[in-house]
Write a structure and sequence with these properties.
The protein is an alpha+beta fold. A hairpin with a 5-residue loop joins strand 16 and strand 17. The longest helix has 41 residues. It is elongated and about 85 Å long. The termini are far apart.
Length: 344
């Protein structure tokens, strides 16, 4: 009696299943890649119609099977306000199974254009931005610069920082009782071990040391930050009555430190910050005296020297101070220190 022949169907079926899944997944990937290219073209044309300048070499999409990788060679994007960014290459990536979260990197550095102030070249160990929850009213945004350096291009105004260990910016919808607020967004900014440019106010305030900061706030009227007019998003936001509320954080400038808080800060029509900022400071006189000794033309040296002398009376004991941003200037008591910070 001849031996029984075993069916090989059991061996073939798994390979057929894998092949079918691979075919379906490949179809999904190519459909996704096509959708990405189509939406990029649509978004680019929309920006151009709104007054943006957007140029780049031909875009390439790769990353099969598990990623969608979009490369933008020679990218240059300039907003109607004159602010912009250019890079030899920008790369955006997302997992093919989660196209709602994207990471963008500038592997060869980038150049920031500051309206009216010129350009600054930014290099570092990591320059990246991620965005997720794209279908929400306010997506989650994360910007991280790892050991960045800042070099003004010839003819540009000085940049406050020369380098830093890390710079981070995070935004997300503001939550009230676990629910997203209608038109509010939380923002967190961190600066770790920043070094000022030679002769600048940061180098002066830190006594050639390092500046670290962590500041968080809630932005009201956050939807108005999406304007793209020539004045920039903050002008549109200010016109709508936008404010920073629940401001709190901590600063470390060399040997001086301070905890900061404010119920509300806002901007004037010219972009200068307005409002009251409370500080509980330790050894503030050293930072203020260093600011007075800087070579920055923006610093009111006489006012800073007077404020330093007044603050030094307390010695090393913590002292409560109030910074006022008023009429376009920064005041510490009766002493004018410098122009108020400018948002736009």
């Amino acid at each position: 009696m001849p031996p029984a022949r075993h069916s090989r169907r059991g061996l073939v079926i798994p390979f057929l299943i894998v092949g079918m899944l691979l075919a379906v997944w490949t179809g999904w990937w190519f459909w996704l890649a096509g959708e990405v290219e189509t939406r990029l073209e649509t978004q680019t044309e929309s920006l151009r119609e709104a007054g943006w300048q957007v140029t780049h070499e031909p875009v390439s999409v790769s990353g099969w099977p598990f990623r969608t990788r979009v490369a933008f060679p020679a990218a240059n994007v300039v907003a109607p306000s004159g602010h912009g960014v250019a890079a030899p290459e920008l790369v955006a990536e997302a997992n093919a199974w989660n196209p709602g979260r994207w990471m963008m990197i500038a592997p060869d550095g980038l150049v920031l254009t500051r309206a009216g102030k010129g350009q600054v070249a930014v290099e570092g160990d990591g320059l990246r931005m991620s965005v997720s929850h794209l279908r929400e009213r306010f997506p989650d945004l994360r910007i991280e610069l790892v050991r960045p350096t800042f070099t003004p291009v010839a003819g540009a105004d000085p940049f406050p920082l020369a380098s830093a260990e890390r710079i981070e910016l995070y935004t997300r919808p503001h939550l009230t009782d676990g629910e997203a607020a209608t038109d509010e967004m939380d923002v967190l900014f961190r600066l770790s071990d920043g070094r000022g440019r030679p002769g600048g106010p940061v180098e002066g305030a830190t006594r050639e040391g390092r500046l670290s900061a962590e500041v968080e706030a809630t932005i009201e009227q956050a939807s108005r930050l999406r304007g793209v007019d020539s004045a920039g998003v903050f002008a549109n936001w200010t016109e709508a009555g936008g404010r920073f509320t629940a401001v709190q954080g901590r600063l470390q400038a060399g040997e001086s430190s301070a905890r900061i808080s404010s119920e509300a800060l806002w901007a004037r029509e010219d972009g200068r910050l307005e409002g009251r900022l409370a500080l509980t400071a330790e050894r503030p006189g050293e930072a203020i005296a260093g600011l007075a000794g800087s070579r920055s033309g923006a610093v009111d040296r006489a006012g800073a020297a007077g404020a330093a002398a007044a603050a030094s009376v307390q010695g090393d004991r913590p002292i409560d101070l109030v910074l006022l941003f008023r009429n376009g200037r920064t005041w510490l008591g009766p002493f004018a220190l410098a122009p108020a910070p400018k948002l736009f």
